[in-house]
């Protein structure tokens, strides 16, 4: 167990790596399969989506510097076979950062998603920024059940310059919740991510895998398309655009093309709340909208291994984030 006292050893990147679970259980002579669900929770912007993508080994959840980027419950799957029919399947659910400041319909829907995601999981990764614990973190922590094994993931360790301050901070965290283990790390450091996978594996029950060995997510390509467009939208508008802007995929059509093999035609609408936001998204002579479209298309072509036609529209729907029916019609739970 990683206690504040032995954390320095665990923090040593050289201690990471190697084979997962060397003492793999064997049932009736057959190598066993392990499989379980792991929820990733934390306040906005602590690095949950970055961590999910690193754990899964491919981009599943969109990330940006803007808080509240994640709006859906996203499942990422990582399977590590042992080559003899056994091994471990990790099923991750990412959650939107828990909202505490606003009471709009959108935020209520986000909070319901968080509560749904942590119910009945095998393990919870409670993600905070290393060395920090704010009211926002406390509100998420208050939702966690003491009887579900929970790891404290102290992320963004690379940004902590005074490492000596981490041990007293961890001792303080120990008083706040019966954490099973502490994992100070950086989601951007592959060795740390590998070590976290090793730790998670110990908490997963022995049972057959739920998904195929090659499956990465249970989300459709249509869903991923909307997420990628939304990521480009937020990246390219910076802090100017309110997070209540969203993307709706109106059309997703697959065609066979003699020239390109697989071809996908997508029409998407960017929904904003004000005329001013619409002008901001379109940009000078349509430059910004064009760039959002080009970057999204290039990434999706790679992700989906196809040729793509992507058509983007911008619509103003003022007050949609306050309107429960509209929030649902745009695909939120
Ligand atoms: N330096 C550093 N930055 C990180 C690390 N992990 C994540 N980040 C950055 O933190 C920002 C937020 O990361 P996200 O993964 O989008 O955070 P999130 O918790 O999913 O955010 P929401 O979707 O708002 O809930 C991004 O700019 C990431 O690049 C890390 O280990 N070190």
Automatic annotation (TrEMBL):
Its main location: cytoplasm. It comes from the Bacteria. Residues 34-206 form the Era-type G domain. Residues 68-72 are annotated as: G2. GO terms for biological process: ribosomal small subunit assembly. One of its GO terms (cellular component) is plasma membrane. Pfam families: KH_2 (PF07650), MMR_HSR1 (PF01926). The keyword rRNA-binding applies. GO terms for molecular function: GTP binding; GTPase activity; ribosomal small subunit binding; small ribosomal subunit rRNA binding. GTP binds at residues 42-49, 94-98, 155-158. Keywords: Cell membrane, Cytoplasm, GTP-binding, Membrane, Nucleotide-binding, Ribosome biogenesis, RNA-binding, rRNA-binding. Residues 42-49 are annotated as: G1. The keyword Nucleotide-binding applies. Residues 1-20 are annotated as: Disordered. Residues 265-318 form the KH type-2 domain. Signal peptide: none annotated. Monomer. NCBIfam families: era, PRK00089.1, small_GTP. An essential GTPase that binds both GDP and GTP, with rapid nucleotide exchange. Plays a role in 16S rRNA processing and 30S ribosomal subunit biogenesis and possibly also in cell cycle regulation and energy metabolism. Belongs to the TRAFAC class TrmE-Era-EngA-EngB-Septin-like GTPase superfamily. Era GTPase family. This is GTPase Era. It comes from Ottowia testudinis. The gene is era.
